Amino acid sequence: MDVSKVLIPTHRSRRIRSRGTTRSDIKELLLLLIVDREGPIGRYRLKDMLGLSGHEGSVRQMLVNLQSQGYLAASRSGCTLTPTGTTFLEACLTSKHIAAIKRVGAQLLTVGPVTLGVHLQNKADHIESAMSLRDLAVRGGATGATILLFKEGVLSIPSVHPDFLSEHPNLIKELQETFTLEEDDVIALISAEDEWIGVEAAITLADALSGSKR
Question: What would you report as the CA-atom Rg of the chain, rounded to the nearest whole angstrom?
Answer without folding.
Answer: 17
